[in-house]
Amino acid sequence: MTMKNPIRFLTLLLISPLWVAVANAQVDFTPVAVPTEAVWDAAPAFVQEVRAPLAEEAELEAFGGVVYLLTDTQHDARGEEPVNFRRIVREARNISGVEEVAQQQIVFDPSFQRLVFHHVYITRDGERTDRRDSVRVDFARQETEFDRLMLNGQVTALMRLDDVRVGDVVDVAYTIYGSNPVFDGQDFREFTLRWAVPVERLFVRSLWTDGDVGYWDVFGGKVDVIHQTGAGFEEFRYDGLQVEALDPESGAPSWHYQYPALRITGFDDWQDVTDWAEPIFNLEPNAAVRSEVERIRARHETPEDQLLAALRFVQDEVRYLALSFGQGGYVPASPDQTLQTRFGDCKAKTVLFNQMARELGFTADPALVNLYSGRGLDNYMPSPGGFDHVITRLRHDGETYWVDPTNSHQGGTLAALTQADYGWALPLTERGEGLVSMAAERDAEGPSLIVREEVDLSGGRSAPIRLSVETVRTRDEADFARAVIAEVGRSGLQRNYLDFYNGAFGDSEFVEPLRYEDDRANNQLTVWEEVDLHTPYEDGATPSAYSFNFFAHALTRVVENDAERRRVSPLAVGHPFHIRHEITIKLTNGGRNWDLENESERIENSAFEYSYTARRSGDEYRMVYEMKSLGHVVPSDAASEVLREQDDMMDAIFYGFDMTEPQRRPSK
Q1: What strands, in cross-sheet order, belong to the sheet with 654-660?
Q2: Residue 115 clears pLDDT 90, i.e. is over it
Q3: How far is CA 437 from CA 130, 290, 428, in A?
Q4: Over pLDDT 90: what percentage of the chain?
Q5: Segment of 111-120, 385-394, 493-502 carrying the highest mean pLDDT
Q6: At what angle do helices 270-281 and 346-359 cross, to 10 degrees?
Q7: pLDDT band at 12 (very low <50, low <70, confident <90, very high)
Q8: Pairing between strand 261-265 and 322-323?
Q9: In DSSP terms, which residues pair with 171 in a beta bridge?
Q10: Domains of the chain, earliest start first
């Protein structure tokens, strides 16, 4: 969504009348011009000189052909604008290293930041030369998230050096000045104290006015940070020597810190963040909103139907587009502007829906969330930097609903709506509530994905296998399928399915066009397929022997397969998943000469439940597979068992029939 850069996004959330007024004004979607030339000047006065280890003093191995001799980060929050100084010194050990150190990319936002270069040195055979006059710096706006309909106006400065050789040491220093003025001196920072590459000397220093720090800690590992006070200031310092690379464990939750970090914020607590953010999202409704609400009232009788119509309007008739240029990166567009342009980001859509919901008599509060790390917000420092998205907390008749106005193609009534659950949320109300858990006790529900397949082998080897499939999706599975069909259409969905069958079974064709039925009110989407598999069999050891292999393809892994089994970090679980796959085999010869047994298997651990049953009835053999995830995370000491049993489950969903004429016997 649009709040991609969390520090930038909420820097505007100040309870200043000026910025409340700006929020009600029209947002300018015009990006700031790209700089045309580099600016050079001396380093800021507060910067302390830090000695870079010599190349011959390096004790750690090269990474990607580069020895990282020094990373120097110094930050000053005491002035009218924050100042961030960076220096990096690297040696190229081979041609790969030369390619790395001969260029450097620096990303900044020219709408509120200034980039100033200080020096570019190359040391070769003990002699240092100044390359300032020969280095080339180009500026370009690289919208890396355009495919997600997100444009932020950030600029990349690309520094390129000529004549860089193996053994050269490249030393670059620069400073980024500024932040959006709505910070009004408030700041929050996070400094990583260990990297994915080895660093000979990793230096971090941060200066704050005495009394401005509301909270600080070192999180994600044991690292000694020096905290001291001086005449009117506080200083945080870390000076690490021979800092080994940290290889993060795979499969860990996105909210789990593996790299140690120094975190400093000027906010005292989450109430402080709420007081800062609340006024900008809670705006007074205007005539354009009231007109749209009256149109909805005239077409729908009950308050619940009216609310659902308002939600569908914002989700499906206001397209998602995030133009986060300047103010647009911080201030939500006003509802009348959103109605006029018919586009908006998460901020604009949420503000519009909240106003419509309130006009309809519902209690609607904006709620800040984090799409990826929201389950770890309770361990995050209090600051706007913890959030990258905003949704709605809706309350009605004693019930609470978490609604995402950006979730297009969503189905279901208000009571059956698939609610957003990102872990923790910060509702923006005048009284403040702090972080609130989004998790709610849900009534036990059946599978959200049910696949029923009939595999007809009765024609024997000379005939194609007829595959008849009914797929029933509900809840979030229906929402997802509805979005896919909206993008690719029925024919595109059929093409995708046919590609799967061709890849899995060889020559395949739809004998009837794929059909689907979308009951959006009840949020159930059903797809029917009739497919002939023309070359599904594999030859056996003798001319009369052949086999057919199939699998319960609806079932999926819920943890990363390559995750370390012996680990320190917890293991993330894809959740919620509840899938049922039913397969009925129509046997040859009316079921005669088949030696089939009833079977059952069950696996249960802290991540998922899995069950399998197989029953013979006349000329049919029916297999039922079911898998249900149990939570979002597995403790590290249970990871090995979960991964092993996931492998067992994935092995068990494959089956095969080894057949001969006239004798046939299945294999598992």
Answers
A1: 537-539, 545-551, 654-660, 664-667
A2: yes
A3: 55, 32, 14
A4: 71
A5: 493-502
A6: 70
A7: very low
A8: unpaired
A9: 89, 121
A10: 32-183+188-265 (2.60.40.3140), 274-437 (3.10.620.30), 449-667 (no CATH)
287-299 and 346-359 helices, crossing angle to 10°: 60
CB-neighbour burial class of residue 517 (10 A; exposed 0-12, middle 13-18, buried 19+): exposed
Q: Specify whether the CB–CB gap between 244 and 206 falls below 8 A.
A: no
Which of 370, 371, 368 has the alpha carbon at shortest distance from 391?
Answer: 368
For residue 186, give the nearest of 275, 262, 114, 106 by alpha carbon: 275
Q: What global pTM score does this model have?
A: 0.89
Q: What pLDDT, on the 0 to 100 scale, is given for residue 328?
A: 55
3-state SS assignment for residue 327? helix
Under 8 Å between Cβ of 178 and 80: no
Instruction: Please state, in angstroms and rounded to a whole number, the distance separating the CA atoms of residues 353 and 576.
Output: 27
Give me the residue label for tokens 């050990």.
93
Which are the contacts of 379, defined by CB distance < 8 A and separation ≥ 6? Answer: 219, 255, 257
Helix, strand, coil percentages in the chain from 3-state DSSP, rounded to 5: 25, 35, 40
Residue 51 in tokens: 């000695």
Q: Are 330 and 381 in contact (CB under 8 A)?
A: no
Q: Residues with Cβ < 8 Å from 209, sequence gap 6 or more?
A: 77, 78, 232, 233, 234
Instruction: State residue 123's pLDDT score.
Output: 96
DSSP letter assigned to residue 502: H
Q: Among the listed ranges 227-241, 271-285, 485-499, 560-574, which one has the minimum average pLDDT value?
A: 271-285
pLDDT at 439 over 90: no
Cis peptide before 447, with omega less than 30 degrees from 0? Answer: no
The predicted-structure confidence for 142-165, as pLDDT tens digits, reads as follows 766 556 555 555 778 899 999 999
What's the token pair of residue 597? 């047994």
Containing 99, the helix (H) or strand (E) segment is helix 95-101
Angle at CA of residue 166, ends 161 and 167, nearest 5°:
100
State percent of the chain over pLDDT 70.
90
pLDDT band at 28; cut points 50, 70, 90:
low
Q: Residue 116 has what pLDDT?
A: 96
- Residues facing residue 85 across a β-bridge: 74, 175
Instruction: Note the pLDDT tens digit of each residue in 29-73.
Output: 666 777 889 999 999 999 999 999 999 999 999 999 999 999 999
Cβ neighbourhood burial of 294 (10 Å; 0-12, 13-18, 19+):
exposed
* Alpha-carbon 619 to chain mean position: 48
Which residues lie below 8 Å from residue 20, measured CB to CB, with a gap of 6+? 279, 280
DSSP state, 334? P
The whole-angstrom distance between residue 198's C-alpha and the CA centroid of its chain comes to 27
Question: Which has the closest alpha carbon to 159: 92, 93, 86, 106?
Answer: 106
- Name which of 333, 365, 512 is nearest 433 in CA terms: 365
Location of structure tokens 């980060």: 73
